[in-house]
Amino acid sequence: DGRIFKPGQGNNSYIFPGVALGAILFKAKHIPDKAFLLAARRCANFVTEKSLQTYARLYPRLKDIRELSVLIAIDVGNYLFKHDLATLHPEPEDKDMEMGSQAHYVTHNPQERRASDSNHRTHEMFIRQQIYSVEYDELINKTYSWPTKDMKHGFPVPVIERTSMDDE
User: Fold this and answer.
1) Span of the secretion signal (predicted)?
2) What pLDDT digit, counting tens, does each position of 20-53 carry?
Protein backbone atom coordinates (compact mmCIF):
# COMPACT_ATOMS: atom_id res chain seq x y z
CA ASP A 1 0.00 0.00 0.00
CA GLY A 2 3.02 2.30 -0.34
CA ARG A 3 3.62 2.93 3.38
CA ILE A 4 7.18 3.18 4.64
CA PHE A 5 7.97 1.48 7.95
CA LYS A 6 10.88 2.47 10.14
CA PRO A 7 12.83 -0.62 11.17
CA GLY A 8 15.06 -0.53 14.18
CA GLN A 9 17.52 -2.82 15.85
CA GLY A 10 15.98 -4.88 18.61
CA ASN A 11 18.97 -6.59 20.17
CA ASN A 12 20.66 -4.10 22.50
CA SER A 13 17.68 -2.03 23.55
CA TYR A 14 14.65 -4.27 23.40
CA ILE A 15 15.62 -7.93 23.49
CA PHE A 16 18.86 -8.45 25.45
CA PRO A 17 17.91 -6.57 28.66
CA GLY A 18 14.80 -8.68 29.27
CA VAL A 19 16.43 -11.98 28.31
CA ALA A 20 19.46 -11.21 30.48
CA LEU A 21 17.27 -10.13 33.39
CA GLY A 22 15.34 -13.39 33.26
CA ALA A 23 18.47 -15.50 32.80
CA ILE A 24 20.33 -13.84 35.68
CA LEU A 25 17.45 -13.71 38.17
CA PHE A 26 16.39 -17.31 37.59
CA LYS A 27 20.00 -18.54 37.27
CA ALA A 28 19.66 -20.21 33.88
CA LYS A 29 21.83 -23.24 33.13
CA HIS A 30 22.07 -21.86 29.62
CA ILE A 31 19.99 -19.50 27.49
CA PRO A 32 18.15 -21.43 24.80
CA ASP A 33 17.26 -19.93 21.42
CA LYS A 34 13.61 -20.16 22.46
CA ALA A 35 14.22 -17.38 25.02
CA PHE A 36 15.06 -15.00 22.19
CA LEU A 37 12.02 -16.11 20.22
CA LEU A 38 9.82 -15.45 23.26
CA ALA A 39 11.41 -12.02 23.61
CA ALA A 40 10.84 -11.23 19.94
CA ARG A 41 7.19 -12.26 20.19
CA ARG A 42 6.68 -10.19 23.35
CA CYS A 43 8.35 -7.20 21.70
CA ALA A 44 6.18 -7.52 18.59
CA ASN A 45 3.00 -7.88 20.67
CA PHE A 46 3.94 -4.79 22.67
CA VAL A 47 3.69 -2.54 19.60
CA THR A 48 0.33 -0.79 19.65
CA GLU A 49 -1.89 -0.67 16.61
CA LYS A 50 -1.64 3.13 16.73
CA SER A 51 2.17 3.00 16.68
CA LEU A 52 2.12 0.60 13.78
CA GLN A 53 -0.54 2.30 11.67
CA THR A 54 -0.03 5.97 12.52
CA TYR A 55 3.71 6.20 13.13
CA ALA A 56 4.89 3.12 11.18
CA ARG A 57 6.87 1.93 14.20
CA LEU A 58 7.97 -1.69 14.19
CA TYR A 59 9.28 -1.49 17.76
CA PRO A 60 7.59 -0.24 20.94
CA ARG A 61 8.21 3.28 22.20
CA LEU A 62 11.45 3.69 24.15
CA LYS A 63 9.58 5.10 27.14
CA ASP A 64 8.00 1.64 27.61
CA ILE A 65 11.28 -0.26 27.48
CA ARG A 66 11.58 -1.00 31.23
CA GLU A 67 8.09 -2.52 31.33
CA LEU A 68 8.88 -4.54 28.21
CA SER A 69 12.06 -5.88 29.84
CA VAL A 70 10.08 -7.03 32.89
CA LEU A 71 7.55 -8.83 30.69
CA ILE A 72 10.31 -10.50 28.66
CA ALA A 73 12.00 -11.60 31.90
CA ILE A 74 8.68 -13.07 33.08
CA ASP A 75 8.35 -15.05 29.85
CA VAL A 76 11.95 -16.23 30.03
CA GLY A 77 11.58 -17.21 33.71
CA ASN A 78 8.41 -19.17 33.04
CA TYR A 79 10.11 -20.98 30.17
CA LEU A 80 13.24 -21.75 32.22
CA PHE A 81 11.26 -23.29 35.08
CA LYS A 82 8.94 -25.19 32.75
CA HIS A 83 11.90 -26.79 30.95
CA ASP A 84 14.07 -27.36 34.06
CA LEU A 85 16.67 -24.82 32.97
CA ALA A 86 16.42 -22.56 36.04
CA THR A 87 18.70 -23.27 38.98
CA LEU A 88 17.10 -20.76 41.35
CA HIS A 89 15.64 -22.71 44.25
CA PRO A 90 13.15 -22.49 45.72
CA GLU A 91 11.06 -21.24 42.87
CA PRO A 92 9.59 -17.80 43.71
CA GLU A 93 6.27 -18.14 45.54
CA ASP A 94 4.43 -15.78 43.24
CA LYS A 95 4.86 -18.32 40.46
CA ASP A 96 1.32 -19.42 41.30
CA MET A 97 0.00 -15.86 41.56
CA GLU A 98 -2.98 -15.17 39.33
CA MET A 99 -2.58 -12.06 37.22
CA GLY A 100 -6.22 -10.95 37.52
CA SER A 101 -5.20 -7.32 37.87
CA GLN A 102 -3.77 -5.57 34.86
CA ALA A 103 -2.07 -2.91 37.00
CA HIS A 104 1.45 -4.00 36.02
CA TYR A 105 0.83 -6.41 33.18
CA VAL A 106 0.30 -4.51 29.97
CA THR A 107 -0.30 -6.07 26.60
CA HIS A 108 -1.69 -4.54 23.46
CA ASN A 109 -2.63 -7.82 21.79
CA PRO A 110 -6.32 -8.65 22.55
CA GLN A 111 -5.77 -12.43 22.32
CA GLU A 112 -2.85 -12.27 24.71
CA ARG A 113 -4.81 -10.02 27.06
CA ARG A 114 -7.62 -12.60 27.29
CA ALA A 115 -5.11 -15.35 28.06
CA SER A 116 -3.45 -13.25 30.75
CA ASP A 117 -6.80 -12.42 32.36
CA SER A 118 -7.73 -16.07 32.78
CA ASN A 119 -4.70 -17.94 34.08
CA HIS A 120 -1.41 -16.27 33.17
CA ARG A 121 1.02 -17.16 35.95
CA THR A 122 4.23 -15.21 36.37
CA HIS A 123 7.29 -14.39 38.41
CA GLU A 124 6.42 -10.71 38.21
CA MET A 125 6.71 -9.73 41.88
CA PHE A 126 10.09 -11.43 42.22
CA ILE A 127 11.42 -9.66 39.12
CA ARG A 128 10.11 -6.23 40.12
CA GLN A 129 11.74 -6.54 43.56
CA GLN A 130 15.15 -7.09 41.93
CA ILE A 131 15.08 -4.13 39.55
CA TYR A 132 17.10 -1.08 40.48
CA SER A 133 15.03 2.07 40.94
CA VAL A 134 15.97 5.02 38.76
CA GLU A 135 13.91 7.51 40.75
CA TYR A 136 16.08 9.93 42.70
CA ASP A 137 15.32 12.73 45.13
CA GLU A 138 16.39 16.20 44.10
CA LEU A 139 19.89 17.06 45.31
CA ILE A 140 19.50 20.82 45.07
CA ASN A 141 16.82 22.73 46.89
CA LYS A 142 14.75 24.34 44.15
CA THR A 143 13.62 27.19 46.41
CA TYR A 144 17.10 28.56 47.05
CA SER A 145 17.39 32.24 46.14
CA TRP A 146 20.79 33.63 45.32
CA PRO A 147 21.59 36.92 47.05
CA THR A 148 21.18 39.82 44.62
CA LYS A 149 24.75 41.00 45.24
CA ASP A 150 26.00 37.59 44.00
CA MET A 151 24.16 37.83 40.69
CA LYS A 152 24.95 39.40 37.34
CA HIS A 153 22.09 39.95 34.92
CA GLY A 154 19.92 37.50 36.89
CA PHE A 155 22.46 34.65 36.93
CA PRO A 156 24.38 33.48 40.02
CA VAL A 157 28.07 34.35 39.97
CA PRO A 158 30.45 32.99 42.63
CA VAL A 159 32.12 35.64 44.75
CA ILE A 160 35.85 34.93 44.76
CA GLU A 161 36.80 37.41 47.50
CA ARG A 162 34.96 35.56 50.25
CA THR A 163 37.01 33.31 52.50
CA SER A 164 34.01 31.55 54.03
CA MET A 165 30.27 31.29 53.64
CA ASP A 166 29.85 33.27 56.87
CA ASP A 167 31.38 36.45 55.38
CA GLU A 168 28.71 38.91 54.33
Assistant:
1) none
2) 999 999 999 999 999 999 999 999 999 999 888 8
